[in-house]
Amino acid sequence: MTFEPTPVSRAREQVERQLREAILSGTFKTGDKLPSEVELAQSFSVSRTTVREALRTLDSSGLISKTPGVAGGSFVRVVDHQALGVTLGDSIENTLRFGNIGFDEVIRVRRMLEVPAVRLAAENRDEEDLDRMRGFAERQKKTTVDDPEVPDLDTNLHVSIAEASGNRVLASFVGALHRVIRPALYVDISPPVGKKTVSQHLAIVRAVEQGDPQAAASAMEAHLDYLDRLPAAREANGY
User: Which of 46, 182, 208, 231 stands the most exposed, by the fewest C-beta atoms within 10 Å?
Assistant: First the structure.
């Protein structure tokens, strides 16, 4: 028998995973208020910054909502299609790590889902969808490739496109695949690659904004083709 090292989760990921499992298992129910950042930091023996990052990810995933103010905090949301995406992602990740499906198979399914999704987004998007897409794309323009938020921005942009399709199940699957394969970690990103990727994202958003399904699909295909040609960095994912 041979053993291989497995990647150690960052503190933020460990906090996020345990809180997510507590929500999905029913330990924390819909409407419940989570312990404060100070209490969570003490419980996990991590910094408040680490807890804040984990809560931000759970908020983006739709599992919690953050309310400011003295009476505010982090509250468990209704389990919806976004939570379904998280559950699907966990199942896919476990199968990848311990089962017999390959990483390349997941990459191919991503293409099968995202090209039709962007077509539908161009047909069905509303102003709120467009504002969300533009927001993520603009934040990408202002960041650098070594920013730790890059993977989450990439995932959030693609998920927002899928959500604009109007099919929540489709959006759940796209979100699940993105959160597992983490495309921004799958490829070897350099500043020129980051710049090219952002320009491709902007082209996709423009096509969706213009309501042109064919242009949107072509822009997404070009983006995925470009990623497929880049040097892989799969060890970042542990696969």
Answer: 231
From CA 206, how far away is CA 173, in angstroms rounded? 23
Distance CA 172, CA 90 (A): 12
Q: pTM of the prediction?
A: 0.64
Phi, psi of 23 (to 5 degrees): -70, -50
Interatomic CA distance for residues 239 and 235, integer angstroms: 6
C-alpha to C-alpha distance for 163 and 173, rounded to whole angstroms? 10
Count of alpha carbons within 13 Å of 53, Cβ hemisphere only?
14
